[in-house]
Write a structure and sequence with these properties.
It contains eleven helices and 14 strands. The protein has 316 residues and is of the alpha/beta class.
Amino acid sequence: MVDMLNWVVVGIGDITTKRVIPAILAEPRSCLYGVVSRDPEKGRRYAGRVWTNLDDALADPEVHAVYVATPVALHAPQTIAALGAGKHVLCEKPMAMDYAEACRMTDAARQAGRRLGIAYYRRMYPKLQRARQLVGDGAIGRPVLAEINCHDWYTDSDIRRCWRLDPAMAGGGPLYDIASHRIDVLNFLFGRPVAVAGQISNVVHATAVEDSATLLIEYEQGTRGVVDVRWHSRVARDEFRIIGTDGEMELSPLSGPELVWPGGREQLPCHANLHYPCVENFVSAVEEGAHLYSSGETAVWTDWVTGEALKVRHSR
């Protein structure tokens, strides 16, 4: 245990500048010790210490934790390097390019005896934690079907974010980007997935990554999840509902505060900075041994689901 957890943030993009760095600065047990950026001038806007090479930052014994916020292809090598250097790691989602890489990350954390968290921050939504409690208490009977959709229009005119359309860097399109969060939500609520089928296609955008994906996921206790994500809809949707044998639960929009179930209607807003509860929980896990809501061990199952969906697609 240390008095203050010294963080290094790797990658200075929208997520880190708008959410992650503010969350670290606001967390009372945390210190933004430095950043790793290819652009030193940009890095100095956020921290006094700037490295252009991750290995140099990892060599500093005063660094305790690393936030990895680089393109997906770099998650595994950078996380494994940081863990090997004795640092705790909180990594952006999705965890890795595939399930095998994700497993290597969890293996590295176990070998190093360090914490590995993945930034699936929706697990910290008060609404989802309440929904999990209600489902467990039988508020809708036995949950049999969960439908979760996220639709938007996506074309990347910003050169800084064009890596999202490069499968070698991003892994895929909405399947990796927005479906990963929603797969993890289902995993959080219903446990371990056991079977997956998927349809992945380009319907509107002729990009190197898919513009739509639909997944059917079977869970150990028999709940069936349907995840549908699209980058070709000018009508934005963020829908989630759970159907049970004795009723249903409405959580649309997923990122909104309202939870409706047979016993009532509740308003449970999330934190103004979506990443803050995730950072706070990670620090509590490191400093106090608290339960880590989104760990490497839980996040690998999202990568497993993604991989199984791609197997079905590639066999056609």
